[in-house]
Specification:
- With 204 residues, this protein is an all-alpha fold.
- The chain has one domain.
- 76% of the residues lie in helices and 0% in strands.
- It is built from ten helices and no strands.
- The protein is globular and about 60 Å long.
- It starts with a helix and ends with a helix.
């Protein structure tokens, strides 16, 4: 069940740059080490509803209901565009600035959780990723889904922490250049806007 193939597959998926990775990097660069850990934790917690949906079969309902899928999808699009604006705005949540004070861990984690919660593709992703690694025993299928999902979440948190610590380590060097900070803020805004556009084009 928890095979090397599953671990490698999950690791590749987790390490691939996505909204959670970009958010964690932005927080690490803009606010430092401890805030980046809160971002990693929030993004990991945001997986829980999708894992529950896949385990309970709700992901299939989301997949077949165009209205429900689009409601969640466009809420996610709006939120990503909001984060893009926050990266550009002076003093914004994701703005990289030498004068930037860290937000509370709760606020950082909450935003990270929302990034994943408002991505309807995650539920469908779990519905596709986990079943091939089950033992095939119907009686233990739910417990196996939860176990595999838990391992996926542990890997997510560990990898995101590494991303965040890397960004926090680079923070002092980057903050010495106003030009680099402007470039970073514009880049993060463009990336979140691009991710919003990609999500808007997704279909159930």
């Amino acid at each position: 069940m928890i095979s090397l193939q599953f671990l490698l597959t999950a690791l590749v998926v987790v390490a691939a740059p996505g909204t959670g990775v970009i958010y964690t990097l932005a927080i690490g660069l803009g606010q430092g080490r401890w805030p980046s850990l809160a971002a990693a934790l929030g993004c990991t917690i945001g997986i829980v509803p999708h894992l529950a949906a896949a385990t309970l079969g709700l992901a299939a309902v989301l997949h077949t209901s165009a209205v429900l899928f689009n409601v969640v999808k466009f809420a996610g699009v709006a939120y990503l565009l909001y984060l893009a604006w926050q990266a550009l705005r002076d003093g914004g949540t994701l703005a990289v600035s030498a004068e930037r004070k860290a937000d509370s861990p709760w606020r950082i984690a909450r935003r990270g959780a929302l990034i994943n919660i408002l991505n309807p593709k995650l539920s469908i992703f779990f519905l596709a990723l986990l079943p091939p690694f089950l033992s095939g025993n119907p009686d233990s299928a739910t417990a196996e889904m939860i176990l595999l999902g838990g391992v996926f979440m542990v890997l997510t948190f560990a990898v995101f922490v590494l991303y965040g610590l890397f960004a926090a380590r680079a923070r002092d060097w980057l903050l010495s250049s106003e030009r680099v900070m402007r470039w970073l803020n514009r880049s993060f805004a463009a990336i979140f806007a691009a991710l919003a556009a990609r999500l808007a084009l997704e279909r159930a």
